[in-house]
Amino acid sequence: MMGPFRPAHEDAPWARRLLLGLALLVALVMLLLPLLAVFTEALRRGLPVALDAILEEDSLAAMRLTLIVAAITVPVNLVGGVAAAWCVAKFDFPGKRLLVTLIELPFSVSPVIAGLVFVLIFGAQGWFGEWLRARDIQIIFALPGLVLATVFVTFPFVARTVLPLMQEQGRDEEEAAATLGATGFQTFWRVTLPNVKWALLSGVLLCNARAMGEFGAVSVVSGHIRGETNTMPLHVEILYNEYQFAGAFAVAALLALLGLVTLAAKTALERVAGRRAGGAA
Amino acid sequence: MSIEVEGVVRRFGATAALEGVSLSIASGEFVALLGPSGSGKTTLLRILAGLEGTDAGRVLIEGADMTGVPARERRIGVVFQHYALFRHMTVFENVAFGLRVRRDRPAEAEIARRVRELLALVQIPELERRYPEQISGGQRQRVALARALAIEPRLLLLDEPFGALDALVRKDVRRWVRGLHDRLGISTILVTHDQEEAMEMADRVAVMEKGRIVQCDTAETLLRAPATPFVAGFLGEAARLTCRVRDGRAHFDLPLPPVEVRLPDGPALAFLRPAGLVLHAGVGPGQGGGVVRSIRDATEARSRAVVEVGGTLLDAVLAPGARLERGAPCRVEVQSALVFGADGARAEAEAVLLAT
């Protein structure tokens, strides 16, 4: 600093340094350190051991299952989330506030409760248990249950990232499109959707990361059948409880890696989006 | 293209935005909807565009009832208040939109030809690759106009289109838009709260108050023969003074000389335009003494002045040849005024000749 003058909105240098230091410390201890621990533990006994644990049959099955669940969940929530956000942002209807509250419900309810609800509805002793058994349809302790639980838990990600942007943009452009002769579908496809595409992609990536990592709700509906209904997070827990630390950390590291890739993709995306917007400004 | 609005009513919850509005617009006519905010002018525009429904009444375009016809089938061009350009599209794509969504979509070469023609018409051919964020307010307005004209509209609706422009540009753009209207031969409706804009651009001005059209006439008629006290007060500069009519004379509550008026006895409302209030040097007999508070336009034939009469400031003009300075006492003459009786009857008032 050149002299004693300091703009009123700036804090004293020592205060800034202190706050910055605190933030860095928290990030280091709470975020970076655990991540490093996962990777060092995974590689403690060498790369071959870790690879063996990952390539083991049950681990591969868990990976496959996780990817399948995510592959179903993400498109479902993409369509559902965009539809919900579109309704709320562009139309007025009774019960709109209720819908907005419902969109956020999965964030405020413990995932375990979400899992239990599905067991209560579709389980053997549940409301539709009898009916489903008679038709030989298995939902709980099978793939449909896992997908249902994951869809529930990850529903808000797309809707919540797209909704504020749609609300901010208002209905002006949609109305203009209507006067220019566009149908509702043309308006949505050519005006509404392109206006939120970057937010939408970012929401999809977050949804995907969470879908792959979800533990609580999935744990309740899974039944933990090895090689069949174990997703990667569940598999990590089982390995850990069986004292197979190397395997547990290897799979955990892979899961963490998937998350990191998603995060990197999201950051890259925001950069591209930012450059587009910046270039246009 | 002729437009008939017949007894249109629109309510939002308990409040009525429009309470039985009727208006007819001839083919090729330029009509302005003028009124304060909340008078219902934008609601009427949105109903014409098909963006808003009606609770009663109907809109006919060239004799065809528009009730239930969606906006996209009306072929009415709209320039929105904030232009509502598609932010993720270039200027070219914005203008091309109306052509691309058509069921009988023209060939790409034809679209390009039409778009360039329109951009040339609104005099911004060089901007076709820019995005709305990259151009100025005036340029955006031209894009919005070109986009609306691309569908070859039967009717053009302009919703406060000049509000975002600075005052210098605004005057030019107004004349240019009016010229465009004349050249294209379409019907145009302009929504505005700026009376100068309405009177300069439109053939007729529909003055709106609280969801009704109180008068629809040429600018000259509106100024000369306003139908209600609201119109008289809203258009042009006029001081609104309470008075009382007794034996064919209106006596002002302020110490001003009375005027002759053909109205029944009782309370009344007078509107005095600056040109009808003339200041003379010296102090005259009886009522009508004032003090000059300021003088402007001193170079014009008749200088404008502000005079204080009985504690109220009024706009006035100096009598030809009168030499008055700020702070000087003067005699105030009421040459003409518009007086509305308690029953709404209107009468022109004239100065009482001093001889009588």
Please explain how this structure is put together.
The complex is a heterodimer of chains A (281) and B (356). Chain A is globular, with a radius of gyration of 23 Å. Chain A is mainly α and 281 residues long. Chain A has 13 helices and no strands. Helices cover 79% and strands 0% of the residues of chain A. Chain B is an alpha+beta fold and 356 residues long. Chain B has two domains: 3-228, Rossmann fold (3-Layer(aba) Sandwich); 237-353, OB fold (Dihydrolipoamide Acetyltransferase, E2P), CATH 2.40.50.140. Helices cover 23% and strands 35% of the residues of chain B. Chain B contains eight helices and 21 strands. In chain B, the strands form four sheets. Chain B has a six-stranded mixed sheet, with helices on both faces. In chain B, strands 11-12-13-21-20-14 form a six-stranded antiparallel β-barrel. In chain B, strands 15-18-17-16-19 form a five-stranded mixed beta barrel. Chain B is elongated. The mean pLDDT of chain B is 89. Classes of the chains: A mainly alpha (281), B alpha+beta (356). The interface between A and B is medium-sized, with 19 and 31 residues.
Short descriptors:
heterodimer; A: 281 residues; mainly alpha; 13 helices; 0% strand; globular; B: 356 residues; alpha+beta; Rossmann fold; OB fold (Dihydrolipoamide Acetyltransferase, E2P); 2 domains; 6-stranded mixed beta sheet; 6-stranded antiparallel β-barrel; 8 helices; elongated
CATH architecture of the largest domain in chain B: 3-Layer(aba) Sandwich
Compute the number of strand runs of chain A: 0
The number of domains of chain B: 2
Helix/strand class of chain B: alpha+beta
CATH superfamily of the largest domain in chain B: P-loop containing nucleotide triphosphate hydrolases
Q: What is the oligomer described by this structure?
A: heterodimer
Proportion of β residues of chain A? under 5%
Strand content of chain B: 35-45%
Please tally the helical runs of chain A, counting DSSP H or I stretches of 4 or more residues.
Answer: 13
> How many whole angstroms does the radius of gyration of chain A measure?
23 Å
